[in-house]
Every structure is written in structure tokens, then in C-alpha cells.
Amino acid sequence: MKMNRILRTLLMVTLSMALAVGMWGVMPAQRVAAATCTSTGSGNWSNSATWSGCDDGVPGAGDDIIIQAGHTVTVDVNATVNNIMLQGASSGTRLTLNNGITLVVNGTLNSDNSPGVNIISGNGLLKFAGGTRALFGENWGASPRNWNLEIALESNATGTSSGRNIKAGTIVISSGTFEGVDVHADQGAENSGSLTVAEGATLSATNIQRTGTSNTAIVTNNGTIEIRGTGQIKTNSLINNGTLKQTQNVNGSTDVNLFNTGGYGGLTINASGSDLGSTVVSIKGNQACDTDNTAVKRCFDIAPTNATGRNATITFYYDSAELNSLDCTTMNAWHWSGALPWVQAGTSGTRQCTTDPYSLQVTGVTTFSPFALRSGAAGPTSVGFVALGGSASLLPIGMLLLAGLVVLRKRK
Predict the structure, then answer these.
(1) Which of 4, 22, 63, 20 lies closest to 39 in space, CA to CA?
(2) Is 411 exposed, middle or buried (0-12, 13-18, 19+ CB in 10 A)?
(3) Which of 61, 103, 278, 341 is the most buried (most CB within 10 A)?
(4) pLDDT truncated to tens, each residue of the chain (412 aa)?
(5) d(CA 264, CA 355)
(6) Left (φ > 0), alpha (ψ -120 to 50) or beta: where does 278 sit?
(7) 264: phi > 0 → left, psi -120 to 50 → alpha, else beta; which?
């Protein structure tokens, strides 16, 4: 009886922990009542004379900020605020971020009209944090360029641009998901700007480029970049250590190029007169494609909508650094059918093994699934990766509950 009481107590405590974890995971953070701090003139952020309406003289973490037309506020200390409104935004500078300083925004950045080129400036950092919401207001635009932007949301949160294009000199998506339209990394000169997506973070955009006619200097993806519709990435250098994803209509006899930018190559599909329909393509870079790591370290997943009448020509591109000690001159494509062995895809044709990106063209592809590249007459020697769904965080608690229930049942 004493053991039963101990086990029941343990189960109650564990169940309470599980419920608390679940509740804490969905309950929104509570914010203290906000003040609205309005600039009274140009000056330093840390100077109370720069502001009116602040409860503590200067803006606090929950406060909303209004910088009035003609005022330039210099952020000289690390600070956290809620919303920021920049007035008279079409010209001049409203916000200067000092070097080494970070301004954290838990709300929305907006302006009273389309912002000018220098509305935000300086070598400091403006960083969005917190949960799901619009990060940029409906009046924002892709003009301010000489500033540094980081989007560091909660891991399950999504930030949007309110349907507006955005621009900054350097852009980092370090956590969470950002859904933009055109995302411009631009430091004010041709072939400038940098965009980085960190591991675990996601960027969904229509286009990634410096301007409509010029390239961003470098795009580095360690997480997930999804290009919507017929958009594209325009960059001098595309580095992919994560996943690139795009959906395109593939039909007729026209080449459809995906992620052929910045020396990356990506993938080219030609339906060869057939109709693949809406086709989802994912490319994973610098990653093992099978559990024994026996293939080129660039993995392809191609999923057409139409399941019949397919006869495609596909050109797979990869970097020599991803060759994984294999032989480019005897490279073949293999697709995963759900069980070993991997099946050779189509007929291997032209192999380009001289300069990066290397490539392999395959004709007569009728079956689609995850693809891997491996040289010689045998495909990868082990199974493909399987993505595990669901949340693992509550698994130990669930196992403990189950074990306790089993013990109780046996002791009755």
C-alpha cells in the first residue's frame, strides 16, 4: 500500500509537470502596461530630455516609440521596446544605431509613409524578438539600406512583412520563420549586402536580391529558404548547408531552372513534352543523403503533381566539395523507392566534371522521389533519412507516466 501511494504521488507530480509544459507552451507572454514615448527633439536614446510620456524618463521594454518628423534619435545603449513609429519618414534619419548597440523590438516597425534611404542608419543592430505578428507595418518599404537587421523570433513563431518588400545592409534570420515578399540585402553599392538564414530558421520570400536588376553579394543558408511562385534568388554566391525549396509548374519542352544562381547550379527539369504539373523541389546541401553517407552530399527531392505520362530530363548540379570521394565521371542518379536497393533513375548522359558546379544530366526519368547521386553501378548502400514528426519534448514524461501505470496495474 505504501508503494502504491508513492507511485500515485509520482504520477500526479509528473502529470502536473506535463500539463504545465503544455500550458506554458501555448500561453502568451503577459506584458506590463505600455507607455507611449514620443521624441521631443534630436538626441541620445538614454537622455530623458529626448522623450516625453515615458514612465521612467526613457523608453522601457513594454513601451511604444514615436520618433517625430525632423528628429534623429541615436540609440547609444542596448534597449528593448514594443512598437516603433517613424514619422516624416520620406527623408532624413529618424533612428541611428551606434556600433555595438542592439535595439530589440517586440512589436512592429512602421512609418507614416514610404521610408527614405537613410531613415535607419548606423553599425548597430535592430533585432526583432518574440512571437507571431507583423514585424513591419503596412507603410514600410524597401528603401532603408544602411542598417543591420536580425529576426530572432521564438522557434514556433512567424513574422510577416505585411505584404511589403524589405531592405537592409545585412539580414540575419536566426530563429523562427519570416514570411516576406521581396527581401533585399543591400549596402548601397552594386553586388553588396548579405543574407544569412541560421540552422532551424526559415525564410519564405518571393525574391531574394539586391535590387530588381542586381545581385546581393552573398546568401548563406543553414536553415530553410523557400522561394514562392516563379521568384528567384539573385546573388553572386549561394552557400547552402540547409534546405532550398520551390514549387514550379513543369510542362512542355522548356527548361525550368531552380536555384541556378551564385555558382550553385541547383536543378534543371525539362518535362520533354509531358506535363509534370505543379512540382515541389527541395535541395539539401552538404548533407548525407543516406544513413551510411555513401552518396554525393547534395540531396534532391522532386515531387510532381501528375503521376502518369511522365518522361523528364533532369540535370543535377553539385559542388566538388560535396563529391564525398566519389568519381564524377561515372556518376549516376538513384531514387529511393521506400526500400533497398535504391533504383537507378533514367539514363545517365552528359557529366560535367571540370569546373564547379559539377553536373549530371539524366534522361527518361519517369519515377520521382528523393534522389541521391553516386558513382558506379550500385546505388547508396543504406536507407534514406526519415524525418521524425511530432514533439519529442514530452516523450520522457509520457514514458514515465506509462511505466508508472503499468507498475500500478501489476501491483493491484
Answers:
(1) 63
(2) exposed
(3) 103
(4) 454 554 455 445 444 544 444 443 444 444 456 899 999 999 999 999 999 999 999 999 999 999 999 999 999 999 999 999 999 999 999 999 999 999 999 999 999 998 999 999 999 999 999 999 999 999 999 889 989 999 999 999 999 999 999 999 999 999 999 999 999 999 988 899 999 999 999 999 999 999 878 899 999 999 999 999 999 999 999 999 999 999 999 999 999 999 999 999 999 999 999 999 999 999 999 999 999 999 999 999 999 999 888 999 999 999 999 999 999 999 999 999 889 999 999 999 999 999 999 999 999 999 998 999 999 999 998 886 533 333 333 334 344 334 444 434 444 4
(5) 12
(6) beta
(7) alpha
User: Nearest-CA neighbor of 310 among 269, 338, 282?
Assistant: 269
3-state secondary structure of 186: coil
> Whole-angstrom Cα distance, residue 234 to residue 184?
10
Give the H/E segment covering residue 25.
helix 2-26
Q: What angle do CA 102, 106, 108 make, to 5 degrees?
A: 105
**Is the bond leading into 28 cis (omega within 30 degrees of zero)?**
no
Give the burial string for 226-256 (b: 16+ CB within 10 Å, else e): bbeeebbbbbbbbbbebbbbbbbbbbeeeeb
Separation of alpha carbons 162 and 344, rounded Å: 46
Alpha-carbon distances of 137 from 83, 115, 195, 202, rounded to whole Å: 10, 11, 21, 20
Q: Domain locations in the chain?
A: 34-236, 254-382
**How is residue 347 written as a grid cell?**
539514363
At residue 91, what is the residue type? Answer: S
Q: Which of 162, 165, 159, 164 is nearest to 185 (CA)?
A: 165
Angle at 118 between CA 114 and CA 120, to 5 degrees: 85
Return the ∠ at Cα 187 (arms to 203 and 214), rounded to 5°.
75
Within a 10 A sphere around the Cβ of 273, how many other Cβ atoms? Answer: 11
DSSP 50: G
The DSSP result for 370-383, as a single string, is: EEEEEESSS--SSP
In this structure, the strands spanning 358-365 and 312-318 are antiparallel
179 is written with which cell numbers?
514570411
